[in-house]
Amino acid sequence: MTTSPKTAIILGTGLGQLASEITDSYEFNYSDIPNFPVSTVEGHSGKLIFGKLGDKDIVAMQGRFHFYEGYSMKDVTFPVRVMYELGIEMLFVSNASGGMNPKFNIGDIMVITDHINCFPEHPLRGKNFPTGPRFPDMHEPYDAKLIALANEIADSKGIKLQHGAYVGVQGPTFETPAEYRMYRILGGDAVGMSTVPEVIVARHCGIRVFGVSIITDLGGFDVPVEVSHEEVQVAANSAQPKMTEIMREMIRRS
After folding, report:
1. Residues near 245 by beta carbon (within 8 Å), at least 6 away in sequence
2. Would you place residue 16 in the very low, low, confident or very high pLDDT band (cuts 50, 70, 90)?
3. Any coiled-coil ranges, and where (predicted)?
């Protein structure tokens, strides 16, 4: 079977069930792909899936890699380099994140409009890849036309979307109350441990990006709230039908 995907999806914590929407699929375990890292986080399956979403050829990563797992930034972003070589032109990324905006509630879907990179290592550090310039422009890391399309689809389906800036941090600890407040002061609306490195490399490759965060916990408010990875997965799972509906329609129209 041949396929020529132009669209890729990175499915994050608790959001991997979108893979069940893919038809005519065939998959590869990460462990069977040369030079691919292997996901070690609960909720990340570790498969590269080719197939169709609607009538569009796609490739999906069911499970991603994180800097906190001990991988280098080159390892974390290697799949995006592979996507570029496959001819991918548009990348959808999703994650679970902690909300710092007082208007947010657990289970909200936040369209990422910008990000703040707080990782201790930059994914483009080192010799420049010829996929882009040494100093790539980042005035629009998340594609404005794709954001507008998501808003239009959500309005037509009566799905509420939040919008905001995502703060990417190293992890693996969840944030302290003071850290939540600091990231909020810096301009962040949600914080998480992924996505930013992948987006930077995608933009360096000229790939358009659309990103969403599922707000799975809240922090930085008057009363500190304890959070666990299991609770994050439950909240992400509860929100994924709406996210799946929006992404499916976006890919159909793109």
Report:
1. 157, 159
2. low
3. none
